[in-house]
Amino acid sequence: MDVELAEIRDFLAQHPPFDELPPPVLAQLPRQLSARYFKRGSTLVTAGRPNSTMFILRSGAVDIRDPHGALVERSDPGTCFGMSSVIADGPSTYTMVAIQDSLTYLMPAEVFNELLRTQPPFTRFFMTQQAGRIRSAVQAVQVSDSGGAVLKTRVRDILKKAPITTTPDVSILDAATVMRHKRVSALIVVEDDDLVGILTDRDLRNKVVAAGHDTSEPVSTVMTPKPHIIDANALALEVMLDMTEKGVHHLPVLECGRVIGLVTAGDLMRLEQANPIYLVGDIAKQVDLAGLQRCAARLPDVVETYVVQDASADDIGRVVTAVGDAFTRKLLNFAEAELGSPPVRYCWMAVGSQGRLEQGLQSDQDHAIILDDAVLPEHLPYFSDLSHRVVDGLEACGYPRCPGDMMASNPQWRQPLQRWGHYFAGWMNEPEPDALLYAQTFFDMRPVHGDNHLFTRLQNAVVGRAPQATRFLTYLAKQCQAWRTPIGFFRDFVLETEGEHKNTLDLKAGGIIAVVQMARLFALSKGLTEVNTRARLQAAASAEALSQENADNLADAFELINHARLRHQIRQLRAGDTPDNNVAPSSLSSFEKRHLRDAFGVIRKMQNAVGYVHQTQYIS
């Protein structure tokens, strides 16, 4: 190797990703590059123009600007640029201008692509750069101008002091004295650091004062044993739902199985009035359908508040779902009050987006009922009446009926536990088109009301068998690939060509569904019980179904596309239109366009990876 080529090799070896290339590959690389000098003020690449070269800056400085002239990056010696258009084989997104006299090495597209194909460190480096741009975009859209992102309020953030505790052998009188001195309305009862009960003002009134109970007796005789609990990471909204459903005013807060505090109804009421927990609270107070309809009319305004504040799409989806759950529970309460107590145990299940905690504005209904196996033919009319009342009520509150009739009002989805087990076994053993459709919906199942034990038994029996259902998993992988991302060969958007949504991007079909399906596949392949898409991705990464990096990339892409959809839907509501998933590119900012392309690119790459792992047909 002559001196000049050796000097180029030594320079490259000082900078990533070339410093990780094998020595023979690095030694050969200088012969494949050409040098070019640019005077200060020269334009190396123009946005919108084709570019088939990656630049390596040897000396000088180059500014990279977006089409609006905003500075994206300033390149220093040793850095690379121009690769995004080489990867996409299309026009450049950026304009690159030398701000100093600059010497560059030019790498042709064929050399760059060969290194991507054969050298994993080289591939990781440039894919991480793309993922980093998406992650930065996600962080940017989540910054709240007002600072009031109360949708992110977790239980741990409400806690102001350590829990006040006692032991079960302490006398009732001594415990009441502690409550008075500490000015608290409840004591947590622990034994050997384990939660065993709670003593509240209500217990003292009803079980001690009114009953004339001896106050020298131990707390264990009047406390509420095994109280309802809440996880420290739960949303404040979930606490309100739990308190409303269970009729309690105090919930011990646990973290890793250890009590770290106590949250009360008063703590929640002290949150700012704009918090949607007040909407949930109002739903719980309603006595008729008309009242629920008035509450439903407030939901779009609540969502708009937090879209404007740039709360995360994941948190907003959880809140919309929590409100949907509250409507469902209240309608079931109405139905049970009118029809009488159910003749056998049952569990009302949310499925689809509501089951995944990802319900959005105008999401349609998807639900089912698991009946106890003791159900008799004469019991069935009760559950038919109950489900139809709930479906009609939800429709009146703005939740459209499922076009595919995947609702509890359909007798097919109102079955005993044993029959549900047969359903899932059939779907996994004979994964035909209808079976796959059902499986994709009903594997996203979550209990909302009734006997949760019925759900747990079904889930444990079904999910545990999934990793061995290799043919079923292969079909799911094919379904993951069936949804084509709306970007073309030159990274331009592929738009709808006909119908009422002509010339628009379908954000749901083009990206959201693919991530949902991949997350479901990864989770089921490891027998994981999570149903929320982000939770599935993280759990699957922990179980090594995919790398943590890929899980994070997909989660960020999912968040970015969902956020764009929410902003689009809020614009539609303001205009008096019905929200949908189809956005016109002209309504997107350059920021949104650029990062949506990156997000769709990440999804496409993962679809191809899924196809490779499960040996399905490659989707380009």
Q: What is the gist of this entry?
A:
The chain contains 24 helices and 21 strands. The chain is globular and about 100 Å long.
Describe the protein.
The protein contains 24 helices and 21 strands. The longest helix has 27 residues, at 313-339.
Q: How many strands, which pairing sense, and closed or not: the largest β-sheet? A: 4 strands, antiparallel
The number of distinct helices, counting runs of at least 4 residues, comes to: 24
Structural class of the secondary elements? alpha+beta
The strand line-up of the biggest sheet is: 1-8-3-6
Please give the number of β-strands.
21
Rg of Cα set: 29 Å
Described by the principal axes of the CA atoms, the overall outline is: globular
Query: Average pLDDT, to the nearest integer?
Result: 85
Q: What amount of the residues lies in strands? A: 5-15%
Could you estimate the helical fraction of the residues in percent? 40-55%
Cα distance spanning the termini: 40 Å
* Uncertain regions spanning at least 5 consecutive residues: 139-151
